[in-house]
């Protein structure tokens, strides 16, 4: 058996050791000295003369070949001098190499610790390729198997919903979660996220409706403004400014009954908000119910004395009561 | 190359019996002892006349002299005083145990003197050595001795010491199952996985080997050093004793050492008989009473194979559990095993064979003699270790360490450094750090075992590394190097990485003999050893005396047995005549006359023993 000793790596041999008077042939002495000198620097693979991908069985076979040659017991009865210790060292190292390479856990750890930068890159690339392949395999499987198709579809919908939620598109997210929940009614994540998405979608819609409503009001399109303000209140019934704005828009349009309903709903939704009471006051005043209007306005000013519109209207009402 | 052809021997030092073997003309063979037997009982005694007896002679007088007859010393070797094993042994052994001078090891009281267990084993080894010397007609100084694979470091050390005390250079301590596999596979060119199921007198071992032609590579070992044939005997003894107590108003025979020795013999015989026949009878006449006011009582019992199997079911189950666990550790399924070897006398029991067959789904090999195979393997290894190129087939044994080896770390936990089933010889270093700020010393406790808690493992030895560099905890690094030799014996050294200060031990301190004690015993032995010729004369005398004593003690039982048989009392008269002649010969001191009488007396004794323990006329 020849060991893979590269010539340029050959350490200088101690001539005295080589000339030691022992019962070993010169060639054997040289071989032992060379191996002993390189023992510390050799990897387990090099020592056993196997490739990095060698199986545990191959490592064992290589070990048996070598240990038969170097084990001190195989040289029993000979005069060995310093070579006994050398053979012993070699045997222990061979055994260690075998123990590590034939134990999957220890081998993985050893290979991680001894990997060169090139190896690290190669291992990382292989790991990523493996992951990619695994992903593809999963989706292919998902398409072909009906049971898996359903699960895969649900997972896809939930994933897309999450992405949409993060991208500020709660409308679409809510839709996807609802679809996912229809496919798998016990999908807890889809249910929880779906509620969240709907809540966010509503407040999102409310916000844009509010802006649009204000714009419409400013440009005198009271019909459109009322519609938008109604939308805001649909999403958030306790939006007092929307309630007030909607009431006024309705009054301007001459729809007094509607204005009154809107204002009453606003008060019910947020009884501690001055604007709601003010809106009710305006609506009631327009409906000619002056006493109730006065009470509503007083209540509004009690909560917030700075409501100038309410003050003016209340003063007017007081005068008209006397008149 | 040495040109020296002094024979080397392999010794199976068993719990119950020991065997010596050697390679003769290229093939291993068992060497008979001077009595012509292949098995020598591992029994040592001091007879009532003060003579030291070993083997069959010691066994013969065991009934009349139980306190001074040491058997099963292997169960105590290398054990610590106070350990569970020793406490258990004290309850069942008829002889007395005391603590050694250091309080750690066990001493056996023999003829009033406490002696160490390795010395007892050394007497058996010396007897086997002398048998081999008689066989070869030359001096023998080198041997391989086997131990159970599951023996720990202390037990191996103590066995090695016993060899030295017997005047032997112990070439190697080899595991018994490995040795058996070697004897089985020798010259067969096997290429398969072999399981050795070794249920001996006192220990159970299971080893799994990957054999490829001449290399015997042990993959995994398991076992129980306190499970063996003697435990089976004890179940039978208990059944007999309790059965007797039930029939005789709770009379407890355990108080009577002589009666117990007779029951022990009868129980073992009944157990062995049940391996071949479905029922065995036990007749022990005059087992109790017979003194003034107390009628003589006899123990009469019938034992069936089913009863034996019932009372030992859990023992067989334990063997099978250990075997299954060891297979799992080797990463093998029962179907991957190419051969199952049964070793040890207890594997003759049909229930044991059946359990093995059920586990592996195959017939165990019948190609080996369970009691001789271990010694044969040891002889092959002895030959390979002295003249490797002369062996008919080159062999190489690669054995493993049976237990996890490590040290105690902070919190009383056990940190493994060399895991079990690692091929030996092996070395491993591990770097530990200090656990307290500015600690000046560190205590290294070396342990062997499988528990995570240090206290539950076997303490092999301790030493203290002093003069650590003064630094905060975790900053001082200590490199601990472990070494397990091919014998499975442990050496440990510790080094402060920064200062280079080093301490080392060969782990012997906690039990067994110190080097000084060994030297002292060897020196005493050299000055006391009588000339060999005298020794054999004295030995014959002692043997004859012991035999005569035993005959006298057995007489009442024999007389009763003969009265009931159709043989009449002629035999008894003849025995009286013979013993009278023998006593005269002894008194004359004539060596040749003694030897002539010894043979007849021996025959009479065999007959008496057989009659007294309930057998027929031999």
Tell me about this structure.
The complex is a heterodimer of chains A (323) and B (618). Chain A is mainly alpha-helical and 323 residues long. Chain A has 16 helices and no strands. Chain A has helices at residues 15-18, 26-38, 44-48, 56-70, 83-101, 104-114, 117-144, 146-166, 170-183, 188-218, 222-235, 240-252, 256-269, 274-286, 290-303, 308-322. The longest helix of chain A has 31 residues, at 188-218. By secondary structure, chain B is α+β, with helices and mostly antiparallel strands. Helices cover 37% and strands 26% of the residues of chain B. Chain B contains 15 helices and 27 strands. In chain B, strands 1, 2, 3, 4, 11 and 12 form a six-stranded mixed sheet that branches. In chain B, strands 18-13-14-15-19 form a five-stranded mixed sheet, sandwiched between helices. In chain B, strands 21-20-23-24 form a four-stranded antiparallel sheet, with no helix packed on it. In chain B, a hairpin with a 2-residue loop joins strand 2 and strand 3. In chain B, helix 3 packs across helix 4, helix 5 crosses helix 11 (373-386) and helix 9 runs parallel beside helix 10. Chain B is globular.
